[in-house]
């Protein structure tokens, strides 16, 4: 049941993280719901300042919050895995095994595909987030051979695929497509087997299959054939990369990392240091991630108001950042969406 007051831990992180999370906070405040934001430093900037990329206060705030809103972490001046310590906690320790990436083409966003009149893009990628290629044992052998471990388990596949079918049901979606390389790889063979078992429990949802290379081709040549894609870690990353290219770039792509009792919400993009501090980062991916957070908190009406507001602002076409063909600043976009959300929530 939805609550009337939420504690949200905000981890802005590095690069454009602080700029885009600030706009998402603005928009959340405009929903009329009551929030307390616990804003904590993490990542490379925190490491350089405090000698710790994931301070105790940040962990405590995550533990006491109803949900976590995340920006991005990574810093040229801090060794690669140090800023990422926070991700070990958010993904592995909190076991957020689903990476949900709804990929939608919004009005007046240029798409490199020639879509039939009146057709859009609305594909949801449900990607495994804790196993596959992201297991820790990966390693490189000598200087001539590189090898990486990839693990796919029955347990991990079953809970992920089940999530995909449950999501299909609760969001009135028609089909789940299993993407794998089961003709070649044994982990994928298991994934496909589990897919078939789970699909049996959902006779109301159509099941479909695609080899990953064919899926990549069809995302460009036959995108209407997809509704929800369920897949392993790396394939999900690559396929959502293609989708980002079709919906206006990473600045338009939100995500949710969901476990059984914990979830955090972050844009698909990373730190984007090349544009950090310039005030031109597109905050929509982060704002839509905040919308996913409200859905997860079962605040469907407020979530829908954010969705409507983003759609209306893009439809009006006056306020947009340079990555999607405009000249507005990050905060002008955040302000416009927040104003629209406020109007919608007063209706
Ligand atoms: P990381 O190493 O943290 O993943 P990155 O810069 O390598 O960061 P992204 O952050 O995903 O990767 O950025 C890829 C490209 O997309 C960059 O050129 C960046 O400027 C652009 N970009 C990313 N996010 C946004 C955004 N919100 N608005 C506009 N451009 C963006």
Could you please say which CATH topology of the largest domain applies here? Answer: Isopropylmalate Dehydrogenase
* Rounded mean pLDDT score: 94
Q: What is the end-to-end distance?
A: 23 Å
In spatial order, strands of the major sheet run 2-1-3-12-11-4-5-10-8-9
What profile does the largest beta sheet have? 10 strands, mixed
CATH homology-level superfamily of the largest domain? Isopropylmalate Dehydrogenase
What structural category arises from helix and sheet content? alpha/beta
Radius of gyration over C-alpha positions, nearest whole angstrom: 20 Å
Shape descriptor = globular
Total helical elements: 11
Fraction of residues in helices? 40-55%
Ligands in the structure? adenosine-5'-triphosphate
* Low-confidence spans: none
Strand content of the residues, in percent? 15-25%
Query: CATH class of the largest domain, please?
Result: Alpha Beta
User: Which architecture name of the largest domain does CATH use?
Assistant: 3-Layer(aba) Sandwich
Description of the molecule:
There is one protein chain. The chain is globular, with a radius of gyration of 20 Å. Helix 7 (212-221) packs parallel to helix 8. Helix 1 (17-30) links the parallel strand 1 (5-13) and strand 2 (34-39). It has helices at residues 17-30, 44-50, 56-64, 85-93, 154-170, 186-200, 212-221, 233-246, 284-296, 300-316, 330-346, and strands at residues 5-13, 34-39, 67-72, 98-104, 122-128, 139-141, 145-147, 175-180, 206-211, 228-231, 254-258, 263-267. With 347 residues, the chain is α/β, with parallel strands linked by helices. The strands form two sheets. It has a ten-stranded mixed sheet, with helices on both faces. It has a two-stranded antiparallel sheet with strand order 6-7. The mean pLDDT is 94. The structure holds adenosine-5'-triphosphate. Adenosine-5'-triphosphate binds next to loops.
């Amino acid at each position: 049941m939805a609550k009337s007051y939420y504690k949200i831990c905000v981890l802005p992180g590095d690069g454009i993280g602080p700029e885009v999370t600030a706009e998402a906070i603005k928009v959340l405040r405009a929903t009329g719901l009551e929030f307390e934001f616990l804003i904590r430093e993490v990542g490379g900037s925190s490491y350089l300042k405090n000698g710790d990329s994931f301070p105790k206060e940040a962990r405590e705030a995550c533990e006491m919050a109803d949900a976590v809103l995340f920006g991005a972490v990574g810093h040229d001046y801090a060794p690669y895995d140090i800023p990422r310590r926070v991700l070990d906690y958010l993904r592995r320790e909190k076991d957020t095994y689903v990476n949900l990436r709804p990929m939608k083409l919004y009005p007046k966003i240029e798409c490199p595909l020639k879509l039939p009149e009146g057709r859009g893009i609305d594909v949801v990628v449900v990607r495994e987030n804790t196993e596959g290629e992201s297991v820790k044992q990966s390693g490189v052998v000598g200087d001539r051979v590189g090898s990486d471990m990839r693990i796919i388990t029955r347990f991990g596949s079953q809970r992920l695929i089940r999530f995909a079918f449950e999501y299909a049901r609760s969001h009135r979606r028609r089909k789940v497509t299993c993407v794998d390389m089961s003709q070649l790889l044994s982990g994928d063979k298991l994934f496909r087997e589990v897919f078939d078992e789970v699909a049996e429990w959902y006779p109301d949802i159509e099941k479909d299959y695609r080899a990953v290379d064919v899926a990549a081709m069809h995302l460009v040549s036959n995108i209407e054939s997809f509704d929800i894609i369920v897949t392993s870690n790396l394939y999900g990353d690559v396929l959502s990369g293609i989708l980002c290219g079709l919906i206006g770039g990473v600045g338009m792509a939100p995500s949710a990392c969901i476990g059984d009792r914990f979830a955090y919400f972050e844009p698909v993009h990373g730190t984007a240091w090349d544009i950090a501090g310039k005030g031109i980062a597109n905050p929509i991916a982060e704002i839509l991630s905040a919308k996913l957070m409200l859905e997860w908190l079962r605040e469907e009406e407020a979530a829908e108001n954010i969705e409507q507001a983003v759609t209306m602002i893009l439809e009006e076409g006056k306020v947009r950042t340079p990555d999607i063909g405009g000249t507005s600043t990050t905060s002008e976009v955040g302000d416009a969406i927040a104003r629209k959300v406020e109007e919608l929530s007063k209706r």
